């Protein structure tokens, strides 16, 4: 999990993913000589093998805040902060506390004289306790970690590290297009984090989503579920009426790429204390590897 | 209308259109040797003639329900069911009744032990009474029927049978792109079903929409209306402030394809008893043929 | 400002931009022999220089009204009319007054027997008073004017005159695609009009937006802000939580084109009496020229 810890040190609220893209390009360039890397804006496409037929999408942006006028904090994506939560300037040292004001408006408290327009993120450090990790931004650092696992362990795979998922979906549109036009890829898996609910539980394995607000193509989903059964990896079937992922953007991209969501559940999403189980993350990586290899061989 | 009856026997809630795509590919392959067929996911493109310049878009998905946990029914698209309406498992035999519970939530009643994740559709059989057909899913089986009429009767035409219109528009984006890039098509007609209202009436002919929530390009619309006047086919001008169709997705596809909506009105949309007039459907097919031929010759 | 006055005489509510496209093609064809013009539907792309690397996007549509049944007025985009405001039929002579009825519904008053489906626009004539212009449709005639200034004053630049921004974004999707595929353009500036607020004031120069409902890519924004500082042109940094522009459509276009919004503030947006300062418009044109040249040389 060392790599996950490193990923959790990098700030990248939606729109400001440059540092994360830099890190990925350097990391893959240094440690994965068999992988071709292509940077598009701050999205990164990594391709391994002769002609991969499956792409893993992992978004590299996170929720956060833009400092507005009069110390107002404007949402980037959909953060769910508590009053008093500690914030840090993205890519900087300044700190402050979020204050929930009248009508639910958020303000930046503390002594900082930070300029309006700066981006702010949760300041909490990750902690591990037994099988559990508690940290901001496990959504989607854990998904990026799992995608890097797939890149390391699969001989034929593409990975799209996408920008803007939490806010607008910019990177998924761009990467879908590039993967379809440049690599004739028609099959995708979304490596992202989902919710612990009454029916999907932390500790019970990776979730495969049968639907969220979007409905993936059933025949592709059936193939995924058949492969999942054969995989021997611990997993849960998730059925939701809301929520979305890069899958939704792919679906509206004009590129005929099928997608299914594969991800570990977490508690307290979009807070400064997201909680996931390490066993679920390992199941997530194992499942992605199993599905990529299974789909590639079909 | 035999073909329409056949179409009404096939289940294809958004996301699960495989059976419908199979049927179309087989039907066209067997009975229309002059038509080239291309399947993209579960969307189907059919092309007839040397260089058609007009495409008819007909969505092949329908509204429906996903069975969730605890017998909850989750909407696919925007169904408008009544308490007690009979449902059938898509592509299966199991039946049950929809129950409207507290706060308007829908549950599946009856004895079935169906698995969460299965898709459900209205079970009612189509009926004809004089000039009227009463059936679920006339939206958009009637539009598919009319598009097949255009494919049979026009020597130069493309038809896009699109997935996901009721839920997300997936197929229209993909088909717009393919028709623009592969066939240089700039002109589209949307073959779909609209509403019986105070100003547009069942039995008064096909409706041509001057706008809905979207505004089609006026110069293209003017050309369509001029051709409609010349056609001799019975039609009504529709002006709406809401509603949408594959036209909206085409408009956001990045492909410069003009579109206008052409469709028969119906009563009780998205219920298990949609009502359309056969005379309106015949006007719809006649108008599509007239417009395709007229636009192609311009 | 003669050119702006001419632009204000042409009607082009979203969907009905044909006359504006005609005018632009003729104007550029006659007076700018060094510019290549390409018309796509009613959007227009103008390209100057050997290999421009920056595109200015200026939307050519405006808000307005469709006449519905029973003299109802249906919104095109988001007009903010007052009861009694004078309207004119787009491209015609008929006039009438907008009446705000029960539940806020709009009706067309007056003696006209105009046909349902006709488009209507504010009838007020532009006025100048010192440094201030008062007119409907400064949004976005002023942005089109500034883009034409950039086309006249920059030796290497592309301009996209886009349709549908107020209503659906059709033209920005199409032009982004064409500029990316045909001209390998990755950098855009949005030439549009913004709001006079507590923090951004008419008369204090052009606004550069650090964000609105969308977040532009930070590294591109940083480059723009550095160039703006060097430009010597009077400008204001704007930070908003809502609002949007063609930038949002570019972001979802699947084309990796960065964008930043550059525009003069106005009072009373989307009314028949929008107010902008001429000094701000000159700053807007100067800033666009400075940024286009600066980005092109980077």
From TrEMBL, chains A, B, C:
UniProt keyword Hydrolase present: yes
One of the protein's GO biological processes: proteolysis
One Gene Ontology term of the molecular function aspect: metal ion binding
Keyword line: Aminopeptidase, Hydrolase, Metal-binding, Protease
Homology family: Belongs to the peptidase M42 family.
Protein name: Uncharacterized protein
Record organism: Capsulimonas corticalis
UniProt lineage: Bacteria, Bacillati, Armatimonadota, Armatimonadia, Capsulimonadales
């Amino acid at each position: 999990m060392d790599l996950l810890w490193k990923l959790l040190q990098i700030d990248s609220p939606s729109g400001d993913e440059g540092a994360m893209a830099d890190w990925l390009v350097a990391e893959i360039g240094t440690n994965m000589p068999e992988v071709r890397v292509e940077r598009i804006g701050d999205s990164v496409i990594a391709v391994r093998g002769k002609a991969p037929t499956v792409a893993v999408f992992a978004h590299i942006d996170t929720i956060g805040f833009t400092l507005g006028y009069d110390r107002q904090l404007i949402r980037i994506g959909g953060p769910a902060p508590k009053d008093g939560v500690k914030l840090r300037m993205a890519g900087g040292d300044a700190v402050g506390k979020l204050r929930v004001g009248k009508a639910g408006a958020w303000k930046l408290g503390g002594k900082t004289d930070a300029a309006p327009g700066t981006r702010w993120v949760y300041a909490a450090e990750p902690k591990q306790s037994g099988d559990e990790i508690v940290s901001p931004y496990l959504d989607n650092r854990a998904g990026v970690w799992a995608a890097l696992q797939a890149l390391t362990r699969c001989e034929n795979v593409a990975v799209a590290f996408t920008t803007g998922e939490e806010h607008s979906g910019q990177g998924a549109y761009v990467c879908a297009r590039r993967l379809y036009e440049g690599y004739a890829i028609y099959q995708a898996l979304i490596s992202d984090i989902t919710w612990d609910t009454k029916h999907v539980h932390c500790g019970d394995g990776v979730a495969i989503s049968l639907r969220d607000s979007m409905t993936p193509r059933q025949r592709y989903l059936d193939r995924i579920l058949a492969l999942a059964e054969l995989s021997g990896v611990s997993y849960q079937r998730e059925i939701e009426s809301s929520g979305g992922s890069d899958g939704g953007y792919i679906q509206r991209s004009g590129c005929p790429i099928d997608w299914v969501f594969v991800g570990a559940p977490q508690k307290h999403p979009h807070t400064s204390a997201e909680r996931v189980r390490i066993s679920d993350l390992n199941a997530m990586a194992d499942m992605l590897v199993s599905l990529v290899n299974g789909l590639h061989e079909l």
